Amino acid sequence: MATIVSKRPATRRRDPFQLQMLVVMYGILAAGFGFKAVMRRFDFYTGATVFPTVLYWHALVATLWLVVYAAQVVLVYRGKLRWHRQLGMASLALAVAMPPLGVMAGVAMRHFDIYQHGLGATELSAYTFLAILTWDMVLFSALVSAGYLLRKRPDWHRRLMFLATLSMSHAGTARIAVPGFVLLGVAFYIPDHVLIATAAWHDHRTLGRVHPAYRIVWPLWALGQTAAMVLWLGHPAWFLGLCKSVILSWG
Predict the structure, then answer these.
(1) What is this structure's pTM?
(2) Quick check: helix, strand or coil at residue 131?
């Protein structure tokens, strides 16, 4: 009896790593914002207060980006590449809107905190925190732009879009602060580097090497964060003056 050999090609096992990282990143964001909203009840802002309108636009666009990125990761995992490409091009408007809205929301909230509520009005770092906000948007813009330009190279595109979304995650850890557990300064950047290191380790384990996307971006990421930290906590006179003039002129 002749042996029947199946001609069906072996199904390539899909790597769930991007899904796993998605859960971790969004868990960090949910924990930080949930902590501030539920546990602290936004107690920085007392009384009947209306936040600057740009903050709501920023929140809307950032949330939509997170939803779209999650959908994109799921679509790739399920092999729906045509839908992935179509949604990617449709989401370009979000990528363009995010940086300016992020910077404007940061300036508006600094003005709101300092000049309407007197929070940190005498603390120089309350003004120079704009360095952190601006760097975050520069980093996101650079990574997303590179990701779109390299969309025909899936290995680069996938990692760059992951890194771009990861750059948003420390917005969660920055909002966790309780007695005995205060995340100050560089501490809220720690999850960034833990997750990049995890991604690099995954590459090394599965590919035998770390992808150039991580080898190039990671040092620049750390350098930019260091420069932003120096401007924030060192508040040099020229930068402090710039931040004050920008914040004071808002509205």
Answers:
(1) 0.86
(2) helix
Strand stretches in 41-102, DSSP E: none
CA angle in degrees (0–180, nearest 5) for 116-120-122? 105
Q: Distance between CA atoms of 81 and 73, rounded to whole angstroms?
A: 10
Question: Are the C-beta atoms of 72 and 88 separated by less than 8 Å?
Answer: yes
Write the pLDDT tens digit of every residue in 164-213.
999 988 887 777 655 444 445 567 788 889 999 999 999 999 999 999 99
Burial class for 93, CB neighbours closer than 10 Å (0-12, 13-18, 19+) = exposed
The two three-digit tokens of residue 72, written as one number: 């994109």
Give the count of beta carbons closer than 10 Å to the beta carbon of residue 201.
12
Reading phi first (left if > 0) and then psi (alpha if -120 to 50, else beta), residue 6 is in beta
**Angle formed by the axes of helices 237-249 and 92-111, to 10°?**
100
One-letter amino acid for residue 145 of the chain: S
Buried b (16+ CB within 10 A) or exposed e, 128-156: bbbbbbbbbbbbbbbbbebbbebbeeeeb
Cα separation, 47 vs 227, in Å, equals: 37
